[in-house]
Amino acid sequence: MCHVIVTCRSMLWTLLSIVVAFAELIAFMSADWLIGKAKPSSSEDVDNRTGGSQEPYHPTLGIYGRCTRISHMQLSRRDTLCGPYAENFSEIASGFWQATAIFLAVGIVILCAVAFVSVFTMCVQSIMKKSIFNVCGLLQGIAGLFLILGLILYPAGWGCQKAMSYCGPYASAYKLGDCSLGWAFYTAIGGTILTFICAVFSAQAEIATSSDKVQEEIEEGKNLICLL
Questions:
Q1: What is the mean pLDDT of residues 198-224?
Q2: Contact 3, 204 (CB under 8 A)
Q3: Which Pfam family is one of those matched by this entry (predicted)?
């Protein structure tokens, strides 16, 4: 018989697991890893409403994507265009970024799998006599290691030709040049930290769902058990 067990700690772990997976996925897909040096507006870039020049814009560069501003000469306006600059894996700008993409992708796949499984831990707490919480916590720890490797290798690719076209000639490995870090990089770091927090917290979720109080309510015949 399936017993639905919901505790404050197990629910918090489930929510954090889902948030971490989505945060890392969104960061990986974003082009806002590097914010390039400002591109000055040309004399043709005039704001029709104010009559003045438009503000300089900052193109952004991700692991495999980029955002830049394109001109519409007939319409006298500019639009931001975002999309992948690499049509396939081999066209990613740097070998270090290729490795980063692999490590991050593996970590994200593991996190998404754990997030999916975590939803069902309310009904199934063990499989083959192994606690699902402990197994998921171990997988989250492994995913965190992959994410760390990816984030360590990523700055090593700042010296590639693609990065230098955005960040200037002084950009090199672990040196940003004229660029600054975008929100996606910080989100990936924050998600990695939360991944290890989730891995540790999974043990608390396991303790909460196997406590003596839960066992007492199971023995009383309750199928839905909610505990703080």
A1: 73
A2: no
A3: L_HMGIC_fpl
Query: What is the rounded CA–CA span in Å between residue 56 and residue 74?
Result: 20
pLDDT beyond 70 at 11: yes
pTM of the full predicted structure? Answer: 0.84
Give the containing element (helix H, strand E) for 84.
strand 77-84
User: Which of 43-47, 68-72, 195-199 is the least confident region?
Assistant: 43-47
For residue 67, list its beta bridge partners.
Answer: 60, 82
Residues 214 and 228: their CA atoms lie apart, in Å, by 11
- CATH no. of 4-36+93-226: 1.20.140.150
Q: Give percent of the chain with pLDDT exceeding 70.
A: 77
Give the residue extent of every domain in the chain.
4-36+93-226
Quick one: how far is CA 142 from the chain centroid? 16
Pick the closest to residue 57 from 73, 85, 38, 29 (CA basis).
38
DSSP for 85-128, please give it: S-SSGGGSS-HHHHHHHHHHHHHHHHHHHHHHHHHGGGT--EET
Q: Which residues of 192-204 are buried (b: 16+ CB within 10 A; e: fewer)?
A: bebbbebbebbeb
pLDDT in tens, 82-98: 889 888 899 998 999 99
62-83 burial: b if 16+ Cβ within 10 Å, else e: bbbbbbbbeeeeeeeeeeeeee
Burial 170-190 (b: 16+ CB within 10 A, else e): ebbeeebbebeebebbebbee
Q: Helical H runs in the chain?
A: 8-29, 95-119, 132-153, 161-167, 183-209, 212-219
Q: HSE on the CB side for 213, CA within 13 Å?
A: 10
